[in-house]
Write a structure and sequence with these properties.
Distance between the termini: 101 Å
Number of strands: 0
Strand content: under 5%
Helix content: over 70%
Low-confidence stretches: 1-24
Order of helices and strands: HHHHHHHH
Number of helices: 8
Mean pLDDT: 84
Length: 246
């Protein structure tokens, strides 16, 4: 007869080993995706405001589309240039502080080793363990270890201004295409269709952006919807007044 312990061992499944994978750069990719969603949101609101405003002043499809396409082109170029300048400045700053760190490692390695150990000790490691970690990381790749621990920068993964500019322009363009397509519907339903399509798209981008940013989805979605609705209402009112005046 089997003992109680033997019976338990025979019916109790062995615990499964779960290996949790952490993809490198996951946080950075989520940030880029979130920025793309926000760029699309900008494209939707900007061009929707333009086409709704112009449609309130005139029913000529060519005029409305010309204004919308011009707004799309100007917005995409502006977003790309702004992102390129911003990210280039960030990259220059990262390179500057990395060069300072590289020089300090060459000129005063002992002081830098003590500084690295102090950082890990400040994170909760015992002095002995912190010193051991600092020594092992320094032996493996001192520059990368100090850059990540002191500066929070991965020297092998610096921001790329060209990628940022392209992503920004692309996301803006994708978002701007929706109101452009919606506004070419028949005159009688042109503005209502555009408004409904824009609000639905804004609800989607607002929810996705909030989800990626780990923010309250409902609050963020309502905020984006109110902002988009206000933008279209203002441009519609201005366009209507201009149409009456001319």
């Amino acid at each position: 007869m089997l003992s109680d312990e033997a019976v338990l061992e025979s019916v109790t499944p062995e615990p499964e080993l779960h290996s949790e994978t952490h993809a490198p750069g996951l946080a950075a990719r989520l940030n880029w995706l979130r920025a793309g969603v926000l760029g699309a949101n900008d494209g939707i609101v900007s061009v929707a405001g333009i086409v709704v405003g112009v449609a309130a002043a005139t029913s000529t499809r060519t005029t409305i589309l010309t204004a919308g396409i011009a707004g799309l082109a100007a917005g995409a170029v502006s977003m790309a240039l702004g992102e390129y300048v911003s990210v280039s400045t960030q990259r220059d700053s990262e390179r500057a502080v990395l060069e300072v760190e590289r020089r300090e490692l060459a000129e005063q390695p002992e002081e830098e080793l003590a500084e690295l150990a102090a950082i890990y000790e400040g994170k909760g490691l015992s002095p002995a363990t912190a010193w051991q970690v600092a020594e092992e990381l320094t032996e493996n790749d001192a520059f990368t270890a100090h850059a990540e621990a002191e500066l929070g920068i991965d020297p092998t993964d610096l921001t790329n201004p060209r990628h940022a500019a392209f992503s920004s322009a692309l996301s803006f363009t994708v978002g701007a295409l929706l109101p452009l397509l919606a506004i070419i519907t028949p005159v009688a339903i042109r503005i209502p269709v555009t408004v409904i399509a824009v609000l639905l798209a804004l609800a989607f981008t607002g929810a996705v952006g909030a989800k990626l940013g780990q923010a309250p989805v409902l609050r963020a979605t309502v905020r984006v919807l109110l902002g988009g609705a206000l933008a279209m209402a203002v441009t519609y009112g201005i366009g209507h007044l201009v149409g009456l005046a001319i």
